[in-house]
Amino acid sequence: MILRPQALDLRLIAHFLGKIVLAFGLTMALPIGVAVVFGEQVPVIDFAVGLLASVCVGLALIVAARLPGKTDMEWAHGMVVVAAAWVGCMFLGAVPLVLSGHWGSYLDACFEAMSGLATTGLVLVKDLDHLSHAANFWRHLLMFLGGQGVIVVAISLLFRHSPGAFPLYVGEAREEKILPNVIETAKFIWLVSFVYFVLGTALLSAAGRFAVGLPWKDAVFHGVCFFMAGFDTGGFAPQSQNIIFYQSGVFEMATIVVMVWGAINFNLHYAIWTGRRAEMRRDIEVRTFAATMTLVAVLVALGLAQSQAYSGAWGFVRRGVYQAVSAHTGTGFQSVYAPELLASWGPLAVVGLLFAMGLGASACSTTGGMKLLRVGIIAKALREDVKRSLSPESALVTTRLRHLRDTFLDDRMVRSAALIVLAYIILYLAGAAAGCFFGYDFVSALFESTSAAANVGLSCGLTDPLMPAGLKVVYIVQMWLGRLEFVSAFVLIGFLWSFLRGK
Amino acid sequence: MKKTSFFIIGLFVAALAAAPCAAAQPPEAARPVSAEELLNGARGYDGELVEFEGEVIRAVLPRGDHAWVNLHDGTAAIGVWVPLAATAEVRYAGTYKVRGDRVRVRGVFHRACPQHQGALDIHAVRFTVVAAGGPMEERLDRGKVFLLAVLLGVLSCLLIYDLLSRKRARR
Predict the structure, then answer these.
(1) What letter does residue A455 receive in the DSSP assignment?
(2) Using CB atoms, which residue from A62, A218, A298 is nearest to B15?
(3) Is residue B122 part of a domain?
(4) How far is residue A128's CA from residue A354's CA, in Å, rounded to a whole number?
(5) Same structural domain for residues B89 and B123?
(6) Global pTM value
(7) Who is most buried in A188, A264, A389, B117, counting CB within 10 A?
(8) What angle do CA A6, A8, A9 make, to 5 degrees?
(9) Is the pLDDT of residue A58 over 90?
């Protein structure tokens, strides 16, 4: 029998949802500041509307909840709040975008907001080269907030007690705490991000000024935007040509550094910060990344050679290797025009990119996709099974793996990894089927679906303001499910079902 | 482990060596084309003399005695490689509050330029500003101001209600 949620459940959810929406709304003060710096007046109004709308919704939820005293939430509440908060933030984050007039409809603005929050990077903006600095900054800030985690933002700003915050933290697809206290963990994530923000922005601004030739003010603005989109493995760019606009190998190399920083597990950042640098060589995720990256580079190289896409080694590095890193880290910066990917790259190179996008990078980082930890676990389990079948029946075969500490591979670990990997494969194929339903060919549909569900953002040209509204909705759902790694989204769906059908 | 690494690197080098060098030969007649046509039919236009017109966006990016100028024709933007001296005429580059100069370019289109590490570009042989750009005025929609006022009203009501209900709860 399914139990209908009680009034207290709803009030708890409304209270915490209200807090998160409120914290999210307050971040819209930042683009208002950017508009003031660049002397833009209309965007100030657009963002003031967005900020007030978010504050009103957040406050209304808190007031309506009237939560009595200190009430801690359970796991299910946390999951529901997280999944609902991401949808709520998408709707509210889209408000200033649609008011700017650069999106064809509110649905398009919602698509862009979810693409930003989920750090995907697929775009539906029109005339991006004339978009205000404030709205452009907001697109990139959405990536930064989503990459760090909307919940991490809210925990840092508005939560004082760890017990209430922990279910929320876990619900946002972060199983690993870096420090024993979740609030301290959130603060550490911000500390790392802030230090890298300063270093990364300095690197990209210098590259923008000296290698690209932008004026200082533009170089710093583009540096900030590229850091947020690169470190959070998002893939938005301030210009319509993405990274091609800059026409600079040095700038591209600087973004590779930032992308790889972002693709590393925050726990590994912590290990490096605390002097345990050897972890970088020993960790299963780093080893799996080295192996899969080599495989992807070989596939792309063979594919490009087969299709005779580029004439020299540097062409291969600046287009082939760059796209491979961008796909594998889940970033989606494009140094190749979208139609060129399918038209000139050849099937093997496209398979390489699909493979890289589908896998993703580290757990507890800002990337999407299956994650290398799970891939590494499954590979080890496969190896153990082969070893077991070759050994005498009485032999005890065990496998050790190194992820932050030494552990022995067990069936529960393998089952959990395999289930999520299977769910991702189903999601990629379901999106491809939807693309085919709307009349696109299978390869384009699979490429774009994998890019959306793994939160990558590389496009072969299918994502366009003119694509069917139904497909836009499918991709929004894919980005949401992919970013939250299914569990909290499924709990929300179960909650809504029990609300309708429960007794 | 070492053997596997050598095998992978060997494979990698072999793949690179297999990529043949393409040399583009510009034909004589120029064809007026849009960015969309160039991007969707890049192989067909590769090495051809084309005529392309678009708005200068963001900035002219100098590289020694040459410069990159990105031109947007309303469908997409393409980078144009041009002698720096030819860009002296460009006064405005398109941004939020500026409409960039409109430029007509005649040049050789490359799907994967051998000089620029595989970039899709046009090497200009003629570069002419055909229409001057200029500053654009921001237009404020009154509806947005009205919406802002309504939201301020709603927020005030919510704050008053919250304050009153807290007072009632304390009593």
Answers:
(1) T
(2) A298
(3) yes
(4) 27
(5) yes
(6) 0.90
(7) A264
(8) 65
(9) yes
Instruction: Kindly state whether residues B43 and B124 are assigned to the same domain.
Output: yes
- Cβ pair A141, A27 in contact under 8 A: yes
pLDDT of residue A166: 65
- In the structure encoding, which two tokens stand for residue A116, read together? 């930003």
Beta B77-83 vs B119-131: how paired, if at all? parallel
B162 CA: distance to closest CA in chain A (Å): 6
Q: What CATH number is attached to the domain comprising B76?
A: 2.40.50.140
**Could you identify the residue written with the tokens 């209900």?**
B165
The C-alpha atoms of residue A480 and residue A23 are separated, in whole angstroms, by: 20
Any idea which residue has 């990256």 for tokens?
A: A293
Residues of chain B predicted below pLDDT 70: 1-29
What separation in angstroms does the CA of A101 have from each of A43, A113, A124, A309, B141?
Answer: 11, 15, 12, 38, 11
Domain ranges of chain A: 1-175+488-503, 180-262, 278-467
Q: For the domain bounded by A180-262, which CATH number is listed?
A: 1.10.287
Q: Does residue B11 lie within any of the structural domains?
A: no
| Interface confidence (ipTM) of the complex | 0.88
Q: Of A438, A430, A423, A425, which is closest to residue A470 (Cα–Cα)?
A: A438
pLDDT tens for A218-274 read 999 999 999 999 999 999 999 999 999 999 999 999 999 999 999 988 888 888 888
Q: Do B148 and B106 lie in a common domain? A: no
- Smallest CA-to-CA distance from A8 within A67, A90, A72 is with A67
- What count of Cα atoms within 13 Å lies in the side-chain half-sphere of residue A144? 22
Predicted confidence at residue B22, as pLDDT, reads 35
- Chain B residue numbers with beta carbons less than 8 Å from the beta carbon of A41 are 138, 140
CA angle, A9 then A12 then A15, to 5°: 145
Summarised one tens digit per residue, pLDDT across range B105-119 is 999 999 999 999 999
User: Same structural domain for residues B157 and B73?
Assistant: no
Q: What percent of chain A has pLDDT over 70?
A: 93
> What integer is the mean pLDDT of A179-205?
85
Residue A247 tokens, joined? 């026409």
Query: Nearest Cβ partner of B117 from A212, A246, A318?
Result: A318
Same domain for B83 and B150: no
Say yes or no: B70 and B87 in one domain. yes
List C-alpha distances in Å: A350 to A236, A300, B161. 21, 7, 58
Q: Give tens-digit pLDDT for A109-167.
A: 999 999 999 999 999 999 999 999 999 999 999 999 998 877 776 666 666 555 556 66
Q: Which residue has the tokens 């914290």?
A: A23
Nearest CB partner across the interface for B59, out of A215, A294, A308: A215
B79 at A interface, C-beta within 8 A: yes
Residues of A in contact with B71 (CB under 8 A): none
Q: Is the pLDDT score of A479 beyond 90?
A: yes
Where in the sequence is the domain holding B152, given as residue range(s)?
Answer: 140-171
Pinpoint the alpha helices (H) of A1-132: 7-26, 29-37, 42-65, 75-99, 106-117
**Helix segments in A149-265, DSSP class H:** 150-158, 162-171, 182-206, 216-231, 249-262
pLDDT over threshold 50, residue A492: yes
Residue A405 has pLDDT above 50, yes or no: yes
**B147 shares its domain with B129:** no
User: Are A59 and B8 an interchain contact pair (Cβ–Cβ within 8 Å)?
Assistant: no
Domains identified in chain B, total number: 2
B162 contacts on A by Cβ (under 8 Å)? 59, 62-63
What pLDDT sits at residue A178?
Answer: 62
In this structure, the dihedral spanned by the alpha carbons of residues B62, A35, B102 and B53, taken in order and rounded to 10 degrees, is 80
What's the one-letter identity of residue A200?
Answer: G
Which residues lie closer than 8 Å to A466 by C-beta, 6 or more apart? none
**Residue among A97, A108, A118, A114 nearest A53 (CA):** A97
